[in-house]
Amino acid sequence: MKNSLLAAIFLLATDSCNCLNLDFPLCKQLPDWDNELMCYKEISEDLTCTWLPAPSAPNTVNYTLFLKWERIQKLFKRNTSSPSITIERKDLFMQRSASIWIAVNYAHDSCVKGKNISLTPSKAGKCLTPSNINAHQITNQLKIKWDMPAIPTQYELRYREALTETTQWTLVPIESNAVNITVSNLNATASYIVQFRCIAKDGLHCVCIWSREILVPHKLMSKPRISYNATTEISPGRRSVLLKWEVMQSENILGYYIDVERIPNNCKDSRNRIILKDRNVLLNLSMAYHRVNISAYNNEGESPQTIYIVPDSSATDLPGQINVKPQGTDAVVTWTPEYSPKCFVVDWGTGKEDMRTKIVTTPAGNFTLDNLQPHKLYKIMVHASDVCQCENFTRHEKTFGVTHFYPVEGVPRAGPTNVTILNITKHSALVKWTEIAAEDCLGFLQGYRISYTDSSGKKWLAASVNSSTASYRLTGLKEKTIYRVQISGFTNAGEGLPTLSQPFSTLKYDKGEFEGFMIGIFFSMVFVLVFAHVICSLVFKRLKISCWPSVPNPRNSSAIQDMASTIPMM
Ligand SMILES: *[C@@H]1O[C@H](CO)[C@@H](O)[C@H](O)[C@H]1NC(C)=O
Ligand SMILES: *[C@@H]1O[C@H](CO)[C@@H](O)[C@H](O)[C@H]1NC(C)=O
Ligand SMILES: *[C@@H]1O[C@H](CO)[C@@H](O)[C@H](O)[C@H]1NC(C)=O
Ligand SMILES: *[C@@H]1O[C@H](CO)[C@@H](O)[C@H](O)[C@H]1NC(C)=O
Ligand SMILES: *[C@@H]1O[C@H](CO)[C@@H](O)[C@H](O)[C@H]1NC(C)=O
Ligand SMILES: *[C@@H]1O[C@H](CO)[C@@H](O)[C@H](O)[C@H]1NC(C)=O
Ligand SMILES: *[C@@H]1O[C@H](CO)[C@@H](O)[C@H](O)[C@H]1NC(C)=O
Ligand SMILES: *[C@@H]1O[C@H](CO)[C@@H](O)[C@H](O)[C@H]1NC(C)=O
Ligand SMILES: *[C@@H]1O[C@H](CO)[C@@H](O)[C@H](O)[C@H]1NC(C)=O
Ligand SMILES: *[C@@H]1O[C@H](CO)[C@@H](O)[C@H](O)[C@H]1NC(C)=O
Ligand SMILES: *[C@@H]1O[C@H](CO)[C@@H](O)[C@H](O)[C@H]1NC(C)=O
Ligand SMILES: *[C@@H]1O[C@H](CO)[C@@H](O)[C@H](O)[C@H]1NC(C)=O
């Protein structure tokens, strides 16, 4: 708003001549143009001046800085295309006061002039800004603290959103002698830039310049997103897991925390935290389940965590064999170690949410599990480790063997789903099904039994197939008969409940058979007709009797004529 207004004023300025200056006869003084011209003495005693870029100016604009020394007629001028300039020590009179202002040169010799400032270089050092500034953001507030200055000084503060360059600065006054301030009603998901400066007072003998920009990042609100995972076996019983992730607003992030936790974890307090700058991590783990929590952090704290469960390993290349002998609700687990580690870690349970663990230090590998639930599939893993404190397992254990067992096998509590009959012929039909869900098997599924009944209700067993089969062709069926198929799964404990198919009927003719039959009939008929016609013409030719009187023309039919005469009357 303000900028475009100024631009409009600049354009108008072309026409009106307010001839203030001989060098720039068309330069228009714009007292409203707050270009924030600031000049201060560097440590090198050069004088640096900065100002705001001219609003709505073309990409390249020439600024002229004017310096009018006290008691010197001639103006000192310097041109620049950037909104700052440094005047060397040799061009300065340190003890003399000067008026300084900026002019902007536009095309057609038009020009605008900003307000002027006056200073004496020797007294134009930069005032000290608050030291030890500590700024952070809590939800929608900025909380800023600083040290009490040695000389009581009054400050002001300004802030703007960090990412959007165009946002205007907001000025916040600070009470004198305050050492902290809270700015409220901000956007909790935006980062801010803050600057300080003192408020000039007589006798201060220094210049109040905006301090360096202080970035106050917002609290990280979104969790990293896993974008890549890869697992490779690196040695028997060990695997490496590579994870990569992506984040939003990575410019606010200082690094990442990676927490690795073994499941089950029998030492709750130990935290295996890795701190990284990169967005990927390579973890070397055993085949046990692991939970990896990843979060980003910055000065404001930690983002929410992403949880990655290192999945069940399907590794087959494990060094050891585990034998389980179920005994009701107990089971005795034995294994033969290839060497004698300090200890074994035994993990068992029905899934990653329900795993238990035990450290076994007896050299002969054997272990009794108790309180097992019948009809549930258990997974048991045995790991060998030479360091036997729980916080060291992640690094030192090697998986020795994995096996699955049911403490007591049951029969499937449901049959396969989605039994459909396809490709029905005269004597056969194809049955397809979807395998029984693992949780319905209640035992190791050995296979499926397929049987069928005809309309009389008599039942025949067609076949038993193994558990990886999901279709079977029934053959030897009777034609044009209604059948119904039953499929059940079986385990070592017996056969489970069957699923019944929709009834279906075998065909009367096979595909092709009926067509052949029809073609036969067609040709016979053609033959009969042609033959009859020939005989007929030969026998009756002389009698001049037509075997097939000519077909009457419907146009001559009285029925049509009657209809035609009735239509107009309707
Ligand atoms: C700025 O000054 C340079 C050299 O002094 C000149 O070449 C250029 O055309 C000027 N640009 C404008 C916009 O006046
Ligand atoms: C500065 O720029 C103005 C306007 O473009 C020009 O008239 C003047 O000669 C330039 N002065 C120097 C020292 O380049
Ligand atoms: C600058 O401003 C002072 C007063 O603030 C005035 O006396 C002086 O004439 C001005 N100089 C020029 C060159 O405009
Ligand atoms: C802020 O400063 C006031 C004194 O001006 C002090 O009482 C208060 O404890 C300070 N608050 C914080 C958070 O430092
Ligand atoms: C808050 O800041 C974020 C990030 O800069 C922005 O996407 C969002 O629109 C802002 N919300 C409001 C209400 O300004
Ligand atoms: C690992 O990545 C694959 C794709 O590469 C994805 O299908 C799978 O779900 C990922 N695994 C996990 C546990 O996120
Ligand atoms: C990982 O995150 C889950 C859920 O927030 C938490 O229960 C668990 O303690 C975390 N693990 C670590 C090692 O921080
Ligand atoms: C993981 O193992 C691989 C191969 O043995 C090795 O190169 C890598 O440095 C290991 N990484 C860590 C984090 O231990
Ligand atoms: C288990 O090991 C102990 C010795 O540690 C042995 O006495 C016992 O017979 C073993 N049990 C089985 C079932 O192997
Ligand atoms: C075991 O873990 C603890 C705690 O993390 C660690 O201090 C120690 O060095 C580890 N020992 C070995 C042998 O890795
Ligand atoms: C059922 O079987 C049909 C044919 O094999 C298949 O197209 C469909 O996807 C299956 N539906 C389910 C739920 O498995
Ligand atoms: C249907 O059954 C016939 C006879 O067994 C067989 O030749 C044909 O390939 C089957 N078609 C399909 C789609 O299974």
TrEMBL record:
GO-annotated cellular components: plasma membrane
Main location: membrane
Residue ranges constituting the Fibronectin type-III domain according to the UniProt record: 129-225, 415-509
Keyword GTP-binding among UniProt keywords: no
Keyword terms: Glycoprotein, Membrane, Receptor, Repeat, Signal, Transmembrane, Transmembrane helix
CDD domains per the UniProt record, alphabetical: FN3 (cd00063)
Signal sequence annotation: 1-19
Family: Belongs to the type I cytokine receptor family. Type 2 subfamily.
The protein, known as: Interleukin-31 receptor subunit alpha-like
Organism the protein comes from: Aythya fuligula
Protein encoded by which gene: LOC116501165
